[in-house]
């Protein structure tokens, strides 16, 4: 009687194909999971900064408030919002100057905070009168500052903050200033002025 010897070569080839198919399927699953994970990370990163602020130069910002003044509520003794912002920006107000950890107070209950881009993160931990701050004036002196990012979460402990004013000695545009901000959620009015050194 003749024994049928299994064809070991065919059996090996079938096993090899089976292993390759399983490996290929596993590789496809890994690639799919990797792409899926990366897309979730990308989407969550975008969702943290989905709103780009509408930034205008200071005069245009105040003019836009004047146009809308008929629909705006009156603030502080029936002064229109436009007049109030104009006084806050250009008027003499009690202020805090914060730069590189050095704090200088001028007046009681300051409503203005003057700082620069490099000092913003460190001011979170320093002790200064912040209860009444309504406007932060951020000085920009060079192109490095213009390309910096300002995380608005750094201002979360300024409970009365309404406006952020960029005062730049470097030529810039609305779009460039708008791109400086992270975590914007329509919580502040943001405007700027280019003021070249004399």
From TrEMBL:
Entry superkingdom: Bacteria
Protein name: Uncharacterized protein
Organism listed in the record: Flavobacterium nackdongense
Lineage: Bacteria, Pseudomonadati, Bacteroidota, Flavobacteriia, Flavobacteriales
């Amino acid at each position: 009687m003749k024994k049928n010897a299994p064809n070991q070569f065919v059996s090996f080839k079938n096993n090899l194909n089976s292993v390759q198919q399983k490996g290929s399927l596993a590789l496809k699953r890994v690639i799919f999971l990797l792409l899926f994970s990366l897309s979730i990370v990308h989407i969550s990163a975008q969702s943290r900064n989905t709103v780009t602020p509408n930034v205008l130069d200071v005069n245009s910002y105040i003019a836009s408030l004047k146009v809308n003044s008929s629909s705006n509520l009156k603030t502080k003794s029936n002064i229109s919002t436009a007049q109030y912002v104009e006084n806050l920006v250009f008027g003499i107000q009690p202020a805090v100057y914060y730069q590189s950890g050095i704090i200088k107070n001028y007046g009681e209950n300051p409503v203005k905070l003057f700082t620069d881009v490099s000092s913003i993160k460190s001011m979170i931990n320093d002790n200064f009168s912040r209860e009444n701050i309504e406007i932060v004036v951020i000085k920009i002196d060079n192109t490095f500052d213009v390309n910096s990012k300002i995380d608005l979460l750094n201002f979360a402990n300024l409970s009365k903050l309404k406006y952020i004013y960029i005062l730049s000695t470097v030529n810039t545009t609305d779009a460039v200033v708008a791109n400086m901000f992270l975590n914007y959620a329509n919580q502040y009015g943001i405007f700027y002025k280019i003021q070249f050194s004399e």
